[in-house]
Amino acid sequence: MPEREANDEDYFRRSIGDERIFDSVIVFPNGTDFDDTLLSSITGTVEKEGRTYWRDRRVATQSGEVRSMLYRTDKDGAYTIFEWLGDDREYQTVVFPLQVGNQWQFTVGDRTSTVTVVGYETVDVGYTTYRDCLHLHLERTDGDIHDTWSARGVGLVKSTIATSTETTMITLKELKAAR
Question: Could you tell me if residue 1 is inside a domain?
Fold first, then answer.
């Protein structure tokens, strides 16, 4: 597979007014599961220290959990501020170029995450096939494992999160792109 570089528009597309609806299924070790719907909205931009961030507000409709994060990208990668954690520090969560095998780390609190670019894969979500999806694999020092697949021009289309207490599967159900 050819190596390729992605810029901030390729796999991390965001525009004010974008809305994404995700199906979420949490499976517990005893086999029970919990279905939820996640609503993700880009509600605006925020200026901090001369940088412009998109605000992504995520609401889980069944559990009522609300999370707000700030994102930005530049030529070197993607950056996140985890507002929902009460943390106003910026973390570089993605490092460009996104070449297969590239690896980097970032630490939030007492947990260090190691991220690896696994490859570019075809992902089927419902009745939609997304080609050339960026697959990132993240392992944290607490044992959590995250795998994400993002489609060019769309963003996140699929995610799995395995912890010691549950496995969560998230898939894109609908994208309402801003006009």
Answer: no
CA separation for the pair 85, 147 (Å, rounded): 21
- Using the CB atoms, write b or e for 61-82: b if 16+ within 10 Å: eeeeeeeebbbbbeeebbbbbb
Residues in the chain where the model's pLDDT stays below 50: 1-6, 8
Terminal alpha carbon distance of the chain: 34
In percent, the amount of the chain with pLDDT more than 90 equals 82
The domain that holds 33 is classified in CATH as: 2.40.360
Against a cut of 0.85, is the pTM above it?
Answer: yes
- What are the residues facing 114 on neighbouring strands? 105, 139
Residue range(s) defining the domain that contains residue 153: 8-176
